[in-house]
Amino acid sequence: MSDGDALEREVSSGHAPERAVTDGDALERALRETGRLHGERRPPDIAAPAAATGLLDVAYALLDSPLGRLLLAATPRGLIRVAYVDDGGGEDAALAQLASRVSPRVLAAAHKLDQPRRELDQYFAGIRHSFELPLDWGLTNGFARRVLQATARIPYGSLSTYKRLAADAGSPRAFRAAGNALGANPLPIVVPCHRVVHSGGGLGGYTGGLERKRRLLAVERALG
């Protein structure tokens, strides 16, 4: 019997073939349930049912800080992105990077970023000197990752240099590459690349601009 004959028999007998359950089906059911719980009085929060059905890989939220608006993003492994998004297109560019390099399943889900937002608020208020956040290093690799992991160990209120970080990452002469790694830091503030300066005392560069670097060091009173 051919597949067509089998299908015709199922339809004629009133038994339609079962449809495979997809991720979309699971999300649709979760959204309907969310709508019932809220009495259909407002649009359901898609982030919660998406997470419940395994369709949320990257959650993000915005935070207004003394340095401007920040986009924070996290995966189940931890915080993966902190981006300055005051500049035109900054938010769209950050989300596009996450979608292309991590997962297209990116959704606004502020509650998933409660801890990073709280700790950053405490940092800017001067009452937190270290972050206790799990980090996802997925946007880094190789030498750059080693540089940033060494940067994460620089204590609050202290300074390091590009040469010292290159040595800590295993390549003492690669201080220019260390500078490039810091310039591409996906987790500024939390991974404190603002604490890295030139050996001669110059500020060096900063992904958020030198004015932000000065203000961060002022928060920590790291500049004499």
Q: Regarding CATH, which class of the largest domain?
A: Mainly Alpha
User: What pattern of helices and strands is seen along the backbone?
Assistant: HHHEEEHEHHEHHEH
The portion of residues forming beta strands comes to 5-15%
CATH superfamily of the largest domain: Winged helix-like DNA-binding domain superfamily/Winged helix DNA-binding domain
Structural class: alpha/beta
Distance between the termini: 86 Å
Rg, nearest Å: 24 Å
Mass-distribution shape: globular
Largest sheet: 4 strands, mixed
Helix content estimate: 40-55%
Give the tally of structural domains. 3
Runs in which pLDDT lies below 50 for 5 or more consecutive residues are 1-21, 34-40
Please, what is the average pLDDT? 84
| CATH topology call of the largest domain | Arc Repressor Mutant, subunit A
- Strand order in space, largest sheet: 3-2-1-4
Assign the CATH architecture of the largest domain. Orthogonal Bundle
DSSP summary: helix tally: 9
How many extended strands? 6
Structure in words:
It is a single chain. With 224 residues, the chain is of the alpha/beta class. It folds into 3 domains: 3-51, no CATH class; 56-124, Methylated DNA-protein cysteine methyltransferase domain (Double Stranded RNA Binding Domain); 142-220, Arc Repressor Mutant, subunit A, CATH 1.10.10.10. The chain has helices at 3-12, 23-37, 47-52, 90-101, 114-124, 142-151, 162-168, 175-183, 210-220, and strands at residues 58-65, 68-75, 78-84, 106-108, 160-161, 196-197. A 4-stranded mixed beta sheet has the order 3-2-1-4, with helices on both faces. Strands 5-6 form a two-stranded parallel sheet. Residues 1-21 and 34-40 have low confidence and may be disordered.
